[in-house]
Amino acid sequence: MGTVNSRDVITLLHGAGGSYMHTLIREVFIRLSDGFGEVPLDLMDDAAVIGNTVFTTDSFVIRPIFFKGGDIGRLSVTGTVNDIAMMGGEPIALSLGVILEEGFPKSDLERIVDSIRDTAKEAKVHIVTGDTKVMERGSLDRIVINTSGLGVRPKELDHDIETLRKTRQPRDWLVPLNIRPGDKVIVTGTVGDHAVAVLSSREGVGFESNITSDVAPLNGLMLNLMEVGGIADAKDPTRGGVADLLQDWSEKSGLGIYIRESEIPVKDEVRAAVEFLGIDVLELGNEGKAVLAVSPEYVRDIMAVLHSHPLGKNAAVIGEVRKDIEGVVMETVVGGERYVGRPLGDPVPRIC
């Protein structure tokens, strides 16, 4: 009997946000695209745009389901809201699909639903429809949540298209094709918090941390930033982290990105954790941060808005877009340079 090639089966890496997942999407799922919509499936962004409607869907399989700073309920609302906000849309309504394992405690379910309700209220979105399924004991790891979301162009930004093109981006929505040489790369806060918080909440990991997850809806902050203008693209560095995000930008824009390690905000406890674990903080997932590509003349005003907001107080300019380099290059703290490749996947599995 022949052996099965590892390339012919699905592994955890195929869902971890790095090169394995991107390859799987290109080789299998992209065949579903027929180019429909203003931002169609084959652009491989976090949401699609059809007319003036933004549509996205996401499934959550995090372990553990309750972690330092959040839970699977808060995460499910946040993740979907943020995917819409990163496109430049205003989230309006969400669906909620819940798959439960037989024997799941009703008290835990009620706690999760309360968290969903509270986070939806915080994000000013509505849960409007849903579905529930139960599977046999042992056939599912406790609970899986799927949320889909609808968003629209923010009313405050519903200018004529020519004004949008002059003051914000060449296209109507935030996509990598808008990025131009000279754009500054901004991260809205410290990176790696979510992955370290989730990992330290797992039994038997072997280290303790007081870091809490950054999981938070960013749509209010993004609306404030878009009112300033100058944003070419925005993306939340979830699975695969900042490294995967910047590689995605570089590949889709055809431009190089240069960043400085000394400028990347990282909490001391997160830095200590990644050094202990031997992993790259740039590859860790985040759930309450955004990375922005911003026209240079707007950077000062963008940074002022960020630093005045609780979710942006640790924001920093970490680099810029360049046409004289390829891929993503980082100036290290010791003065050298290294290439930042796309990770195989997030080094911490099942963080969302």
Automatic annotation (TrEMBL):
GO biological process: protein maturation
Domain PurM-like N-terminal per the UniProt entry, residue ranges: 45-152
Superkingdom as given in the UniProt entry: Archaea
Similarity comment: Belongs to the HypE family.
CDD domains, per database record: HypE
NCBIfam families: hypE
Record protein name field: Hydrogenase expression/formation protein HypE
